[in-house]
């Protein structure tokens, strides 16, 4: 007798009598289409909302009231709406906390999965519960791949920021990996592992589960930050190995495996199509930072980008088969695309320490749907350290007399928080850009009171003014500016907020 057998011996088979079959197959026929239908409806609603905001939402009207101080404030309905937004925007303290709005979305997603996991008394037998967990893992996989696609429809159709869909991607990934591991665990309570390893269709599932487990462990935030390069490799190669293993595990999961594979291949093909090979030069900056300047004149096609978009960069000589995202730090131009990169570990540290300033670079992009500030009377731009990558080109475009915002001409309030004055050499802060580039040096002035600064600037814009606050930098800077906007929204001010966080 060989190592593998076609099926589990009857005496050791899980209980698959009538009640189990009726519950398992009957529930699956209802579960599969309704779960995906619910998420599909949410996606269509988000897409419709984004489409409406792009094409039908009217820009803000006058900058100042016609009768001086005659502004009477927002209507009750508007005030309640802004207070609702205020609650969703607020972010409590905590290293891994998110805004209440983000946590609400995550809670609704997890709640939906808990409902489908326990509905119809799934816990009455370990094999029923184990099957339910396996099904839950599989139906979430196409969503996971869609959220992980860097060239995906979620960015183009919903306008989500990279930060937003990446947060949800992590939680969907935890659901998939945890459910897959628990699926094997509960199933093993009904049939010993030493028997299951001899069944071909179960053996391949056990191998897939090992992959899920490794990805789950490597994605724990502290471990991910310390071993980010390993985390990336496990994600890419783990996914490539898991999909074919699941395909041969069970016939019912194949449509979801195929859908996941199509999304993965489609994303990789689009990355390849968007890839450009250029010669880039590095400039060492203060604060363990390097500027990578890509010569876009040497690309096979013209590269156009908007302020706030990002590209994925690979340098095979420093780190093979790795692509890292960086926000474009230069305003749109036909010559050079600049990236400001802080040296941490792995790729960024190797780039900083490289002996040669010249590198052969492969990049793909640009990606992202950055916000537009049409109709805003004032735009407050806040940056911490390398967050200047986003706020600097945005400030220049906002203040340009010939750019996208020339007709509106919003006021620009710019603040850059840096450890020392020599950080100002990172970018060209010329006066003829018509921007008051304010630099706060923490080494000389201490830490700024960001909440007070944001509130004062919003008040200074005047009654009824529409103010946008855009911030890029460390988590504390983002949280303080976010909460300042939340408090001003609660008081009835017309404020919109956009952020980019540092982190993995």
Description:
This protein is α/β, with parallel strands linked by helices. It has three domains: 10-58 and 93-249, no CATH class; 272-367, Beta Barrel (Elongation Factor Tu (Ef-tu), domain 3), CATH 2.40.30; 378-501, Nucleotide-binding domain of ferredoxin-NADP reductase (FNR) module (Rossmann fold, 3-Layer(aba) Sandwich). It is built from 16 helices and eleven strands. The protein has helices spanning 18-55, 76-89, 100-118, 126-148, 153-158, 162-190, 193-196, 200-218, 221-226, 228-247, 254-274, 347-353, 388-399, 442-445, 450-460, 475-490; strands spanning 275-285, 289-295, 310-314, 324-327, 336-342, 358-367, 378-384, 411-418, 437-441, 466-473, 494-501. Helix 1 (18-55) packs parallel to helix 4 (126-148) and helix 15 (450-460) packs across helix 16. The longest helix is centred in the N-terminal third of the chain and has 38 residues, at 18-55. The protein is globular, with a radius of gyration of 26 Å. Residues 61-67 have low confidence and may be disordered.
Q: What secondary-structure arrangement, pairings included, does this model have?
A:
Elements: H1 18-55, H2 76-89, H3 100-118, H4 126-148, H5 153-158, H6 162-190, H7 193-196, H8 200-218, H9 221-226, H10 228-247, H11 254-274, E1 275-285, E2 289-295, E3 310-314, E4 324-327, E5 336-342, H12 347-353, E6 358-367, E7 378-384, H13 388-399, E8 411-418, E9 437-441, H14 442-445, H15 450-460, E10 466-473, H16 475-490, E11 494-501
Parallel strand pairs: 7-8, 7-10, 8-9, 10-11
Antiparallel strand pairs: 1-2, 1-6, 2-5, 3-4, 3-6
Helix pairs in contact: 1-4, 2-3, 2-16, 3-4, 3-6, 4-6, 4-11, 6-8, 8-10, 10-11, 15-16
Organism: Lipomyces orientalis
Protein name: FAD-binding domain-containing protein
